[in-house]
Amino acid sequence: MAAITLIEAVTQALAYEMKHDKSVVVLGEDVGVNGGVFRATQGLSDKFGEWRVFDTPLDETTIAGVTVGLAAQGMKPVCEAQFEGFIYPMMEQICCHAARMRNRTRGRLTCPAVFRAPWGGGIHAPEHHSEANEHLFTNVPGLRVVLPSSPARAYGLLLAAIRDPDPVVFYEPKRIYRQYKEEVPDDGEALPLDMCFVLRDGTDITLVTWGAEVKETLEAADALAKEGISAEVIDVATLTPLDFDTIAESVQKTGRCVIVQEAPKTAGFGAEIAARVAEECIFDLLAPVARVSGWDIHTPLYRLEMKQLPNTARIVDAAKRTLAAG
Q1: Is the domain of 176 the same as that of 238?
Q2: pLDDT tens column, 203-239
Q3: Which structural domain, as residue segments, surrounds residue 252?
Q4: Which entry of 128, 129, 135, 298 is annotated as an active-site residue?
Q5: Is 129 a catalytic residue?
Q6: Which of 58, 65, 71, 174 has its CA 20 to 30 A from that of 1?
C-alpha cells in the first residue's frame, strides 16, 4: 500500500465514490481539464468523462446554485471553491437554500451536496486565498462543517460527507496538502462524522484544535511531555454538529483546556467551545479556559503570514500559563 498525501487522499476518495455511485458529479473552476488549482481532481475527467467532471464559469454563485439544484433532483454533487475566500458568493445558496432544503420541504427533499474549499494560510498567497473562515458556517442549522487534518481522515471524512443526505462544507487545510504522507487503504471505509478524534491521551491538560493546527498542537504536546506535562490532544474534525461529549470527558479528567484555532480570535469557533466548557464543565475546571488563535486582522502578505498563525511556542506558553493558574 503506497503512502499518500492529504491532497492525494482527497482525489482517491472522489475517485472511489464516483466509481461506485454514478450520481456523484464534480464541478468547479478548472476541476476538469486542469485537475483543479491544487490538482485535487487530477485525472478524474479522463477517467469519468466531462459529463461527470465539468469545468464551470468563474462564478461561485452559479457553481453553488447549480450544486443545490443537482442535489435537490437526486444527484450527489461535489463542487469546489478554488480558495476559502471565494466561498463568500456561495453563502447565499449554501445558507439560504442548501441548509434549509430538508426543513423547508418537511423532509420531502434533501440536499446531499458537498462544498469543498482549500482552507487556511501558510502558502504565501494573497488574503482572499489564505483565510480561516469556518466560523461563518458553524451556526447555520442543517449544515455540517468538516475540517480533516491528515490523509487518512481526509479520505474517510470526504467519503462520509459525499454519502451524507444533507449538505456539508468540507474545508481542506492546504498548508498540509503535501506536508506528509500516510498509508491510506482505498477500501471505501468512511470515518464517522460528528465525532472528535483523540489523537493523544493525557492527564494534565486538554488541547483542542482542528485543521492544519493539529500539527503544531501535537508538537506542543511533545514539547510539554519533555517537561513532564501530559497533554491530551483532540482533533475536532467535524465542527458542527460538535461532539462536545468527547471534549467534556477530557476536561473532566484534566481540569484544564486550551483551544487552538487558526482563525482570528473574536467570535471564532473556539469561542463556542470555550463557552460550552465554561457552562458545562465549570465544576471540573481548575483554571480558566485559554485560547490561542490568529490575530484579529486580515491575513497579512507572505512576509508576515506565519506570524498570524499560532505556532508551537504560543501553544506551549498558553498551556504553561493555564497550568500555573490552577
Answers
A1: no
A2: 999 999 999 999 999 999 999 999 999 999 999 999 9
A3: 197-325
A4: 129
A5: yes
A6: 174
